Please model this.
Amino acid sequence: MTRFLLLGLWLLSTSVAHAARPPVPMEVQAEDGERIPVLVLEPEGDAANPPVAVLLHGLTRNKEDWLSDTAPTYGGALTEHLLRSGYRVYLMDARRHGARATPDARPGNLAKRAHSGDTAPYQAMIVDTVRDARALLARVLAKGRPPRVLVAGYSMGAQVGLLLASREPRVTHLVTMVPPHVDPVLGDAAPVNRMGGIHQSWLLLTATRDPFSTAENSQALFEAAPSKHKARKAFDSGHALPREYLDEVRRWLSETR
Model:
């Protein structure tokens, strides 16, 4: 009984936190003129220059994943932790996802076509999303550099996060959950081709039964990064990590400077 009462109180406190500080819409212009819809969540406290976090969603998902405490991402819990820890949080939709969906080019279909050899549309979606994330960072960091710039992503979001961090030395911390293995032939859409640029403090979370990346793929990705402050943990799961992965992220964020 006590356990359920505590759970109910926690859920209530979470909803109150969202109600007290609802997400604020922001629009950023992409390099090619497209409009990038973004949600901004302000942290607890009134720090003049808080750390910032950019959260990136998976394939066929959207930025609202980071407001919901449901599978596969359980992102609302991570967002709440970041807000309580003083982060200003930014959520954006990838190209062809969420508010930017294009019925004539659905993301899942683009991924399937890429596996069949028609890689150009999928490559463009990923590369343009990385450019969009850079545009968002440029806007966020235009008035100065915060004490910590965290990028975190799940699945395709982890793929984008790696590609972004490899190009953005202003990113200080990187958390990637189950990045898929992407064949090097996909060029700038394949993290394996950019790992030499990963110098950030980096946490890589993988799964032992992930159909999108073998243990060997994940280890090779990890070893290719020259970062001096990197950690890897593998969960005994498929591509959908157990909710406990959030504990590992929280622990790493609290211990990593």
Q: What stands out?
A: The chain has one domain: 24-255.
